[in-house]
């Protein structure tokens, strides 16, 4: 058994020297010697430790290879490992331009400078965040009125921005058959958001109530669709 471990480590040293390209030698893994007098369980543990050290060294010395998928990803914003250090905060990019207003090419409620946590490409993850944001907007009904219009406008823009970017991710990752219904639902919701935002800005209580009633129905539809 000790001879097998020594043979494996010797072949590893030869491979590492061939792939290093003449670079300065790295610390060699410690050779673990097992004696024949030791119990079989201990000999197995020694051999496993030796193989583990060799594997770790190979992973450490092997150069990282960039894949095609990595090249397609957007570069990560500047950060210190804990939070973003790029100011102003980067604006996420939209892949599905169809969710924008056809006349303006954007959405009036979108608020820049908001940190959007990267929750990955999972459809379920973005659907959950859309449902959570829709639920929060449904709770705005008790605050409608010109006295709280500034707060309602800010909160509406915050949650609508999250839904806007999450819907873009949902449409991107959805199956081809599911894309058109999602796109239609997103546009109906975003058109309603823009009308509600305009009503809140004018502080017309009657207009606010009417626009919110239409928005509420679509938000409930979104909650059902994302369940």
TrEMBL record:
SUPFAM superfamilies the record matches: Oxygen-evolving enhancer protein 3 (SSF101112)
Highest taxon listed in the record's lineage: Eukaryota
A GO CC term assigned to this protein in UniProt: extrinsic component of membrane
Subcellular location: Plastid, Chloroplast thylakoid membrane
Molecular-function GO terms, alphabetical: calcium ion binding
Coiled coil: none
Keyword Transport found: no
InterPro entries, alphabetized: PsbQ-like_dom_sf (IPR023222), PSII_PsbQ (IPR008797), PSII_PsbQ_pln (IPR054099)
Keywords (A to Z) from UniProt: Chloroplast, Membrane, Plastid, Thylakoid, Transit peptide
GO biological process per UniProt: photosynthetic electron transport chain
Residue ranges crossing the lipid bilayer per the database entry: none
Family recorded in the similarity comment: Belongs to the PsbQ family.
Name of the protein in its database record: Oxygen-evolving enhancer protein 3, chloroplastic
Origin organism lineage: Eukaryota, Viridiplantae, Streptophyta, Embryophyta, Tracheophyta
Chain's gene name: LOC125535943
